[in-house]
Amino acid sequence: MIMSILSGCMERGVKVWTIKDNYRLGDDIQSKVLAFAFGLSAEIERNLISQRTREALARRKAEGKVLGRQPGRAVNVKLTGHEREIRKMIREGRNNVEIGRQFGVHRQTVRIFRNERLTKWKLKKLFPEV
Fold first, then answer.
1. Euclidean distance between CA atoms 87 and 121, whole angstroms
2. Which residues pair with 24 in a beta bridge?
3. Residues 37 and 47: beta-carbon distance below 8 Å
4. What pLDDT digit, counting tens, does each position of 25-73 carry?
5. Strand, coil or helix: what is 130?
């Protein structure tokens, strides 16, 4: 990728200077060799980082650690604290898309929130002793 960018620059007569080490890359063979070396070292470094990451994840997995996000629902979402407003919007006949737009969340977030939080509210209202 670096070589294609630099060759495009060289075709247009653009000269590239590196600020840190003051390398000047033009259209001569030395500049092409230097650019190739930079690109190759960057690719090797990316591969080494990827390899170290895979090895670390494999080691953690072998130790019995669970990888990834913890299962379960978030306790607080953007809709938390807006239950009254949402109930009012539902009574007005507004759908999940409209409610989601109002609060800046996806319609699925509204659906899950309605199913989990507002259903519990409805049950408490019907059966206060629960």
1. 10
2. 17
3. no
4. 777 788 778 878 888 888 899 999 999 999 999 999 999 998 887 776 6
5. coil
Picking from 114, 120, 82, the residue whose alpha carbon sits closest to that of residue 95 is: 114
- Greatest Cα pair distance in the chain: 85
Reading the block at residue 11, the tokens are 């075709």
Residue 125 and residue 130: Cα distance in Å, rounded?
A: 9
- Half-sphere exposure (CA, 13 Å, Cβ side) for 107? 5
The whole-chain average pLDDT of the chain stands at: 82
DSSP 69-114: SPSS--S--TTTT-HHHHHHHHHTT--HHHHHHHHT--HHHHHHHI
β-bridge mates for residue 17, sequence order: 24
- Would you say 100 and 106 are in contact if contact means Cβ atoms under 8 Å apart? yes
The one-letter amino acid code at 42 reads A
User: Counting Cβ atoms within 10 Å, is residue 28 exposed (0-12), middle (13-18) or buried (19+)?
Assistant: exposed
pLDDT value, residue 126: 52
Q: Confirm whether pTM is higher than 0.70.
A: no
In a 3-state reduction of DSSP, which class is residue 25? strand
**Residues forming beta bridges with residue 25, ordered by sequence position:** 16
